[in-house]
UniProtKB/TrEMBL annotation:
Keywords: Antibiotic resistance, Cell membrane, Cell shape, Cell wall biogenesis/degradation, Hydrolase, Membrane, Peptidoglycan synthesis, Transmembrane, Transmembrane helix
Gene Ontology CC: one annotated term: plasma membrane
Primary gene name: uppP
Gene Ontology terms, MF aspect: undecaprenyl-diphosphatase activity
Keyword 4Fe-4S found: no
Miscellaneous information on this protein: Bacitracin is thought to be involved in the inhibition of peptidoglycan synthesis by sequestering undecaprenyl diphosphate, thereby reducing the pool of lipid carrier available.
Protein name according to UniProt: Undecaprenyl-diphosphatase
Transmembrane segments: 42-61, 67-87, 108-126, 132-154, 166-187, 207-228, 240-258, 270-291
EC number: 3.6.1.27
Reaction catalysis annotation: di-trans,octa-cis-undecaprenyl diphosphate + H2O = di-trans,octa-cis-undecaprenyl phosphate + phosphate + H(+)
Subcellular location: Cell membrane
Organism for this UniProt entry: Lachnotalea glycerini
Key word Phosphoprotein present: no
InterPro entries: UppP (IPR003824)
């Protein structure tokens, strides 16, 4: 892979990961149309996603730091409650348990965990299918059309008011299923999950925050699964440099895209992205029939 291709794909990843137009769909179309040689592409894909993950950490650093702290506190309280349980059983006493979910950030942590479970199951089960259909140009084309429909729906939805305190675990589970389905190339992860959040009545600003933060365990989990194959590959110094530059570009462009997305959701401007996805999807479908 040339440096130019790495930079171009980094730009595509940074823009499409957070704007609701599907990074996987655009990368799949790009690879097919330009016949990019990605024999060691697993590492590059991992680095691209980790690059955009860095952008999430920068934008939501305070929230993520608080979530991590409260996550460990939840674990600590659960361990203490377990000790109290055995103490009460042995001593025949009624020592009160600690209230575990006692603030919004702790509820936020639990919501992300609940969303991650169906995402992980679907992502792992459908891994081979996703890899196979990514090489068929019509699949990301059709999926982009589906994304377009979802964005038209999101554009019509009224303002919600739900913050972590009022979001149910059923909401979180359904949104996690949506994120799992969005592993298909062309189904925008951000577009799908933000639409699901808005349909569930989330406050618009929180919908964006939840969508991006809930992607962290999903991306990290996928990276860990892929790392086992990276060890079997060999890379030249030039490839490592190009891959790294591509990841840095993805991080910078991703940061800008998140900021843009916050404005888009606040002002209900999904329609332009819906039209774009529709046009690209139709073009990809036409391209498939021209190339076969």
């Amino acid at each position: 892979m040339s440096l130019f291709q790495a930079i171009l794909m980094g730009i595509i990843q940074g823009i499409t990961e957070f704007l609701p137009i599907s990074s996987s769909g655009h990368l799949a179309i790009f690879k097919e149309l330009f016949k990019v040689n990605l024999e060691t592409g697993i590492l590059f894909d991992i680095l691209l996603h980790l690059g955009t993950l860095v952008a999430v950490f920068i934008v939501y650093f305070k929230d993520i730091k608080k979530l991590i702290i409260e996550g460990f506190c939840i674990l600590g309280d659960c361990i203490i409650n377990l000790r109290i349980f055995f103490y009460n059983k042995i001593r025949k006493e009624e020592m009160p348990y600690r209230l575990v979910i006692r603030n919004s950030y702790r509820k936020f942590v639990m919501l992300v965990i609940v969303s991650t479970v169906p995402t992980a199951i679907i992502g792992y089960a459908a891994k081979d299918l996703v890899e196979a259909v990514s090489e068929i140009l019509i699949v990301p084309g059709v999926c982009l059309i589906i994304t377009s429909i979802l964005l038209f729906i999101a554009d019509k939805y009224n303002e919600g008011t739900k913050t972590p305190k009022y979001v149910s675990y059923n909401n979180a589970f359904i949104i996690g299923i949506c994120q799992g389905i969005a592993t298909l190339p062309g189904i925008s992860r951000s577009g799908t999950t933000i639409t699901a959040c808005l349909v569930s009545g989330f406050d618009r600003k929180f919908a964006v925050k939840y969508s991006f933060i809930m992607s962290i365990p999903a991306i990290l989990g996928a990276a860990v699964l892929e790392l086992k194959d990276v060890g079997k590959m060999t890379f030249t110094a030039g490839e490592i440099i190009n891959y790294s530059i591509g990841a840095i570009v993805a991080a910078v462009v991703g940061y800008i895209s998140i900021k843009i997305m916050l404005v888009v959701v606040r002002n209900k401007k999904f329609k332009i992205f819906a039209i774009y996805c529709l046009l690209v999807g139709i073009t990809a479908c036409i391209g498939y029939f021209l190339y076969i």
